Amino acid sequence: MWAYDSVFYQIYPLGMTGAPFENPGAPGSDPWKAAGEPGGAVQEQASAPSGVPQDPSGKPDGAPTGAPLPRRILQVLDWIPHLQKLGVDAVYFSPVFESDTHGYNTRDYRQIDQRLGSEQDFVRVCQALHQAGIRVILDGVFNHVGRGFWAFRDVQQQKWDSSYRDWFCLNFDGDSAWGDGFWYEGWEGCYDLVRLNLRNPEVTRYLLDCVDYWIDTFSIDGLRLDVAYMLDRDFLRMLRAETSQKKQDFFLLGEILHGDYREIMNDGMCHSATNYECYKGLYSSFNSRNLFEICHSLQRQFGPDPWCLYTGMHLMNFVDNHDVSRIASILTNREHLPLIYTLMFGMPGMPMIYYGSEWGAPGSKDQGDPALRPAFQLPQWNDLTEHIARLAAVRHDAPALKYGSYSHLLLTNCQCVIERDQPGVDRVLVCVNLDENEYTARFDAHAASAIDLLNGGHVNLTDGLRMPPYSSMMLRPEL
Fold first, then answer.
1. To bridge 63 with a disulfide, which of 67, 70, 207, 388 should be the other Cys (CB 3.0-4.6 Å)?
2. Are 150 and 98 in contact (CB under 8 A)?
3. What is the mean pLDDT of each run of 10 residues along the chain (479 residues)?
4. How far apart are CA 236 and CA 277, in angstroms?
5. DSSP state of 306
6. Residue 197 near residue 110, CB atoms below 8 Å
7. 246: exposed, middle or buried (C-beta count within 10 Å: 0-12, 13-18, 19+)?
8. Are strands 471-478 and 449-452 parallel, antiparallel or unpaired?
9. At what angle do helices 337-346 and 276-287 cross, to 10 degrees?
10. CATH 3.40.120.10 fits 144-197, yes or no
11. Rounded to an integer, what distance in angstroms lies between the CA atom of residue 297 and that of residue 456?
């Protein structure tokens, strides 16, 4: 599977491009078609229909009615050189389809959000990414839809007479907070997210047809499945079968927070799952100066013992994303920023970078989700970005970091040496010193010297490994 070799990059497009939080268009409207875009062809000066305020430049501020429709998604084109320089192999886009507000309350799975642009604009973005050797992953939000979803609006209007009433988990013996005349299930008590009935064959066929449309139209390479832990397991099996038949190497990543990830990550469902256990273990270990926590989690997940959970599997690793505070705002010591990325890239699994965090952008969850998803006109490059680019380059050329076993050769509160070993192929030592003092690590490296993969040159190991303050290394032992 190509994904196991890849470095991923997450973009939250509604935030990155400065789209307004509220979708100004009426549910069910398609201003691009109303503006006369023929056959989906790009119209540089298409006018918005009356009553749909948009802006001409893709910037957050609105513009009078009649201004050209926004084409914010095309801003991604300007980021492609940055992604290539960073060493990115695949971009995961958070929701791009028409929604009420934040993208996860879908109105229409077959329409690009009018705040971002047209279908042809996104086709252009996907084609450019593919031409640059970068694969495309979309957010598959299949557990719930928004109140503006076309089938739910039909139920609101037709009530019991709606042919879509069984598409949702609802009954007519109660009422919603909006006075709909019926009660329905929302996602974890959020009633702006209307739960779909994934036991209804009409619903599952509709969703699978939408995925087929995404593959045919945008040539996407995979899906990240929102709240996959809540998705009906039979639906997951159908999705895996459908997408594998449609595109042999189609990748499915499931979002799961707690429990045994194998519940959704197996040969019949998702290829991978989000590694929230190690996400917490990473920042917590650094802030508490207790690397035993993250190494215990890694040993529990990927160690050699028969009870280890995910040995040989490939989880998705990250230090932040669109749902949690950015790592620059979590770590109590900014000197640890490059070190935590070294450890994340050195762990078993696939690394994912969240847009903006590669240069240390802040963002705190206690300020609300929009603070985690800001607009950036252009990417930045600094020492942290350069360090992450070197990590990506090392990972691309080190089979052991993709497929090697896990063990730790040295572990203290503030230092660790992790061994990734693919016998007969490659061996890499991932070394971290999060202390403000120099440390000499003494361990059996089974070698007298090593190649410094991050900085170049050779390192002598006969008298121990000298680790400068706040340092990290990736070493390939020499025989």
1. 67
2. no
3. 97 97 84 58 29 31 54 97 98 97 96 96 98 98 96 95 96 91 89 95 97 97 97 98 96 96 97 97 97 97 94 97 97 98 98 98 95 95 98 97 96 97 96 97 92 93 94 93
4. 22
5. T
6. no
7. middle
8. antiparallel
9. 140
10. no
11. 30
Reduced to 3 states, what is the DSSP secondary structure of residue 171?
A: strand
| Cβ contacts of 57 within 8 Å, gap of 6 or more | 70
Predicted confidence at residue 34, as pLDDT, reads 67
Single-letter code of the amino acid located at 16: M
Fold of 403-478: Immunoglobulin-like (2.60.40)
- Nearest by Cα to 83 from 124, 126, 129, 125: 129
Transcribe 102-130 into DSSP letters.
Answer: SSSSEEEEEEE-TTT--HHHHHHHHHHHH
Q: What pLDDT, on a 0 to 100 scale, did the predictor assign at position 67? A: 61
**Pair 107, 149: CB distance under 8 Å:** yes
Q: What is the pLDDT of residue 65?
A: 45
For 311-446, list the strands marked E by DSSP: 316-317, 350-354, 405-411, 415-422, 426-433, 439-441
Q: Which of 465, 384, 479, 469 has its CA nearest to residue 430?
A: 465
d(CA 217, CA 232): 26
pTM of the model: 0.92
Residue 231 near residue 240 (C-beta atoms within 8 A) = no
**CA 443, CA 461: separation in Å to the nearest integer?**
9
Query: How far is 264 from 246, CA to CA, in rounded Å?
Result: 21
SS3 80: helix
In sequence order, the β-bridge partners of residue 430 are 418, 474
DSSP tag of 279: H
- Look at residues 412, 435, 429 and name the one whose alpha carbon lies nearest to residue 465: 429
**Residue whose pair of structure tokens reads 């078609």 in the numeric block:** 33
Query: If you write DSSP's letter for every residue of 261-296 in order, what string do you get?
Result: GGGTBSTTSBSEEB-HHHHHHHHHHHHTT-THHHHH
Token pair, residue 193, equals 């997210």
Q: What dotted CATH number matches 2-143+201-399?
A: 3.20.20.80
CA distance between the termini of the chain: 31
Q: Given 3-state DSSP classes, what are the helix, strand and coil percentages for the chain, each rounded to the nearest 5?
A: 35, 20, 45
What value, to the nearest 5°, has the Cα angle with vertex 346 and ends 345 and 350?
50
Give the start-to-end residue ranges of the domains of the chain.
2-143+201-399, 144-197, 403-478
Joined tokens for residue 223:
């899906």
Q: Give the side-chain half-sphere CA count within 13 A for 257.
A: 5
Whether the Cβ atoms of residue 395 and residue 406 lie closer than 8 Å to each other = no
